[in-house]
Amino acid sequence: MEKDSRTKLIEAAIPLLAEKGLAGVSIRELAEAANVNSALISYYFGGKDGLYLGVLEELFSPADTLVEAFEKLEASPPERIQYYAKVILSIHKKNPYLMQFMHSELTNPTFALKIIVEKYISRFFKFISQAFTDGVKEGYFNSDLDPTYASISLAGIMNFYFIARPITKEFLVDNVDHDEKYVIQAVNIYLNGVRRINYE
Amino acid sequence: MEKDSRTKLIEAAIPLLAEKGLAGVSIRELAEAANVNSALISYYFGGKDGLYLGVLEELFSPADTLVEAFEKLEASPPERIQYYAKVILSIHKKNPYLMQFMHSELTNPTFALKIIVEKYISRFFKFISQAFTDGVKEGYFNSDLDPTYASISLAGIMNFYFIARPITKEFLVDNVDHDEKYVIQAVNIYLNGVRRINYE
DNA sequence: GTCTATATTGCGATAGAC
DNA sequence: GTCTATCGCAATATAGAC
After folding, report:
1. What mean pLDDT value characterizes chain A?
2. With contact defined as beta carbons under 8 Å apart, do B187 and B85 qualify?
3. Structural domains of chain A, ranges and CATH numbers in brackets
4. Contacts of A113 in chain B (CB under 8 A)
5. What pLDDT shows up at residue B198?
6. Closest residue to C3 by CA to C1' distance?
7. Per-residue pLDDT tens for B136-158?
8. A159, A171, A191: residue with CB nearest B156
């Protein structure tokens, strides 16, 4: 069964927009990659910007369920950090382009930045930040830890890995799945680094 | 004394190209911001791409001196990591746009990616990576540390902070200089996290 | 070195036939 | 729902006057 044109457009647009950015791709290029007439972009999405939004919705909306799971989670702060790391890993596994869109919006913001930050990213951020606040209060983490700074550095550890491929591919051997190994090591370093020193 | 047009173009182009990316700015916009005729972009740089390269050279070439200093440095691995963090901080202080260009190239690569990775970024990466390798060998760091993974996560901690402004500005109080505080805390967490546990 | 004027190409969007 | 054709405009680059 042939996919409908709307779907074909979204699917073809994902890698193109992720790699070149919104301003870097033309509607003709997008249509061609989808094997679809370029006028259909206006028909289905009202224009190029609309297709971009459609792509972002497609990629980010599944993350919503995951944040909701976060918010219900009853677990200790270190466990919540572990859980966050696992979720980032699974998001990336399911869609390797999401992180690229996020970083693209952070470094070269478009009209869509406000939307995805408010709708998705902030919630993740609040979740980690809360985990650090609680963790300090409950004595898991070092008491001079700043929860905001800690959240940024944890997010940095997790996100940068998936972005830095152009640098790291030279240093990482092929035919090995590094993603999971990386995340495990990084989160271990991190939890070890923030934990309260025990003077018993 | 009036600056020459070449200089005016470079200076005006830095923030514009950093924020919108190469594909997101037109030569008209660049010329207007510099108060200069748009034909001068071709005259001085051979075109828009040339101006972009000129901007990158302007921003990245000072980093060269700093890496050379790295390579001569006689210091223990943890000290070298500390030193790296300080250098990143001073680079960002001197030029707040450099990190944005780097990330822009990583997420939405242009023709210039290969150049700046090979010429600048790789050298930084090798320096940290070597520090971790030595640190494991000399017993400073945990023996199951993977130097490549460790380098990525350290770079992530340092870089992401400077990129994540659109998310974090909402959470960080104004009128405080967070940069230095952040870097100090992050590197402390990190060094604490990687250090060898002492069973004496 | 700097300007105007223009050549040329490609862009995004839409009207209207099918 | 999909196509062709085309409009209007913005893009980069350059020729040539000053």
Report:
1. 94
2. yes
3. 5-57 (1.10.10.60), 61-194 (1.10.357.10)
4. 166
5. 63
6. B37
7. 999 999 999 999 999 999 999 99
8. A159
